[in-house]
Amino acid sequence: MTDAAGEGASKKYILLPLCAGIVIYAVVLAEGNRLLLDPDIYWQIAVGQWIVDHRTVPWTDIYSFTMQGKPWMSSQWLALVFYGQAYAWFGWTGPAVVASLATALAYMIVARFLVRRLGVLWVLPILALSFLIARPHLYARPHVLVLPVMVAWVCALLSAVERRKAPSFLVAALMALWVNLHGSFIFGLLLIAPIAVDAALAADSSERWRLLRRWFLFGIVATAACCVTPYGWNAFRAAHAILDLGKALKLIREWAPLDFGVLGPIQVGIFLILAFIFFRGMKLPLMRNVLFAGLLYMAMAHFRNADVFALLAPLVVATPLAIQFGVHADKLIWTSPLRRNVVLSGAAMVFAGITIFACVAGRYHPGRWFAPEAAVEALKANHAKRIFNDYNFGGYMISKGLAPYIDGRAELYGEKFALEYNAALQLLKPGVFLDLLARHGIDTTLLSRNAPAARMLDHLDGWQKIFIDDRVVVHVRDADAVHSADPEIKPASN
Predict the structure, then answer these.
(1) What is the pLDDT of residue 353?
(2) How big is the CA angle at 440 (ends 438 and 442), to the nearest 5 degrees?
(3) Domain span holding position 160
(4) Terminal alpha carbon distance of the chain
(5) CA 25, CA 28: separation in Å to the nearest integer?
(6) 3-state DSSP assignment of residue 404
(7) Does 116 share its domain with 213?
(8) Are residues 177 and 241 in the same domain?
(9) Under a CB-based contact definition with an 8 Å cutoff, are residues 185 and 226 in contact?
């Protein structure tokens, strides 16, 4: 390879990931308010600030009145600290910037991995398609902060496969970071087995058992690294708690299966991928097929896994695609340190410029739907104590010092509690709602005005409506109050 060719290849390896990161950072940050459209962000910031103030992690619930004192461990405590500190320093711009940077970094790592195997002309459409699929689930939440760690982990494992070796034990340090950022670290551990089998199948038959033993040792080290957390081995219990919700998982939007009755970005992206597979006849080795199919199933089974599929599927298929279609990426040769440093410095300045502009503009704020400010002020003025609230309002209540009946920490409340709550709120069984009010001594409700339970209170004596707007209604228990609406009786049609 000539010096000119080597320099051109190096520029691609440096510039493409940087350009991809800058573009994605700018795009995600430009729609920063969308990043904040999640009710959990309020309690997550509150918990993050509590951790910083108390220099410890939570072991029990201190926020709700229904579960106060019950065991609760935050499997994402470090991410909450990042968001909490970012909010303390920069207001709502802080969490938006942190989430955008994490997303950009994840795509920079993906771009660098891909361009070394496929070349620019393949990488650009793959990145665009990946972002199309991932975007609907990109929020300022802990799972976004773990995306670059997850991508780096899979890149390290797949690179080891290509070298016909097991990963270095140092790679296990990524799991130590992952376990403190998000409970999905178990998924990272589970990936070791199929990738190890892929490595063994690709190796010479005489080397397979030795290689598998090496991968097995690496798996043990990685598992041990997952105990490097304030919770120790209890991190596995905390991460598994969400899976114990059983039927209640279906009540959480991000755990719902992908709806192919709606043609959204994720559905379009998946259809384009399937069209490419059928049109070009893409062929993958056995375990790469297993990995790709598994990631696709995860995305279709639970909406929340769309970004996992979008980021990891390209890594899984990159090398087999290059082999099948004869794509040759140039050998990596660095340019001079001076030119490299100039490029990196320029990219850093662009990132800094975008960030400064976002901070100065200061236009970020969560959607008002999850922040019933006036209603909460009415609750405080009425000295409400035991409040039956809409699930989506629990996080905001915590941020304002009010103890909710329920909030976004579904793993704390458990399957039985969540199902009973939903049955009461939706009046699936009206008796359940009335029993719940009495059993928990509810003196106030804070509900969406369209909630069946809220409408029922209008028809009951002993409950007075003290606040209502276009979204929220507040009822308080008052023995002297009479119903504000008569039952609607419609004559049966013959």
Answers:
(1) 84
(2) 75
(3) 3-36+92-354
(4) 87
(5) 5
(6) coil
(7) yes
(8) yes
(9) yes
Position 168, amino acid: S
Total domains in the chain come to 2
Q: Which has the closest alpha carbon to 179: 137, 110, 240, 134?
A: 240
> What separation in angstroms does the CA of 46 have from each of 51, 83, 397?
9, 9, 10
Q: pTM of the prediction?
A: 0.90
User: Cα–Cα distance between 204 and 211 in angstroms, integer?
Assistant: 10
445: helix, strand or coil? strand
> Is the domain of 205 the same as that of 342?
yes
Q: Decide which of 295, 324, 354 is a domain's last residue.
A: 354
Q: How many CB atoms lie within 10 A of CB 401?
A: 10
Indicate whether 379 and 346 sit together in one domain: no
Strand partners of residue 447? 473
The answer to whether residues 314 and 377 belong to one domain is no
Instruction: Examine the domain organization and report whether 422 and 339 are in the same domain.
Output: no
pLDDT block averages, 10 residues each, the chain of length 494:
42 76 93 89 97 96 96 96 96 94 97 90 93 94 97 97 94 97 96 96 89 96 97 92 86 86 89 89 91 95 93 96 78 56 79 82 82 94 94 96 95 94 92 93 94 91 91 88 55 42
State residue 439's pLDDT score.
95
Please tell me the total number of residues recorded for the chain in this structure.
Answer: 494
Q: Are 230 and 181 in contact (CB under 8 A)?
A: no
CB 28 within 8 A of CB 100: yes
The answer to whether residues 372 and 314 belong to one domain is no
Q: Which of 310, 329, 354 is the last residue of a domain?
A: 354
Which 3 state secondary structure label does DSSP give 389?
strand
* Amino acid making up residue 409: R
Question: 375 and 333 in one domain?
Answer: no
Q: Containing H/E element for 468?
A: strand 463-468
